[in-house]
Amino acid sequence: MKTDLTVTQEAFDELLAWLDSDRENAGHKYEEIRRSLVKIFAWRKCVDPEGMADATINIVAQKASQLRNTYEGKPHLYFYGVARNLVREYENSRRVLVSLEDADTPIVDDTDDDIEQVDACLSKCLGKLASEDRELALAYYQKDGQAKIDLRRALAEKIGIDSNALRVRMYRMRGSLAQCIERCLSNE
């Protein structure tokens, strides 16, 4: 996310002129837009709502001279469009992919007994899967690097689905395995 954008006095003056020809009214509109942006970012649970509001204003200010000549419509709607894009970038930056090893499985000590117990539960839960699903799950996590990518592409072709559908299928399977392992560990 581009938060280090600097705005020159000239660009800021152009922004105010775009908001309103009267400088005082433009200042009031600017403050109102900024307050609204801060509320939007706070409502979307952004860590730094004021910083993101300033980033939005800076992005728009850098385009103000162009907007003044070409944009038709209410200026605050343009600010909200830029803010929506920044929220999308922010949310995408917060997403994290989790592998099977890092899935929400119970935290256990690394003692031999605990490892054996988890291994026994994993085997038990894998045994509950249909044989095709069990083979798929075991094969899916076999390789690393480019070999992993090639293997997963081949697995998807073998079962007649695309790679993204395979990823979704494995994500769901990991979730059900994690729940099964958690239940198994809590019963023992």
What are the key terms here?
Arc Repressor Mutant, subunit A, 9 helices, 74% helix, 2 domains, mainly alpha, 188 residues
What does this structure look like?
This protein is mostly helical. The chain has 2 domains: 9-94; 100-187, Arc Repressor Mutant, subunit A (Orthogonal Bundle), CATH 1.10.10. Helix content is 74%, strand content 0%. It has 9 helices and no strands. α1 runs parallel beside α4 (64-70), α2 packs parallel to α5 (75-94) and α3 (49-62) crosses α5 (75-94). The two termini are 47 Å apart.
In short:
This protein is an all-alpha fold. It is built from 9 helices and no strands. The protein has 2 domains: 9-94; 100-187, Arc Repressor Mutant, subunit A (Orthogonal Bundle).
Average predicted local confidence, pLDDT = 84
CATH class bucket of the largest domain: Mainly Alpha
The overall number of domains is 2
Q: Report low-confidence residues grouped into runs of 5 or more.
A: none
- How many DSSP helices? 9
Task: Assign a percent range to the helix content.
Answer: over 70%
Span between N and C termini? Answer: 47 Å
| CATH fold type of the largest domain | Arc Repressor Mutant, subunit A
Q: Approximately how much beta-strand content do the residues carry?
A: under 5%
- The appropriate CATH architecture of the largest domain is Orthogonal Bundle
Q: Which structural category do the helix and sheet elements fall into?
A: mainly alpha
For the largest beta-sheet, the strand count, sense and barrel status come to: none
- How would you describe the shape? elongated
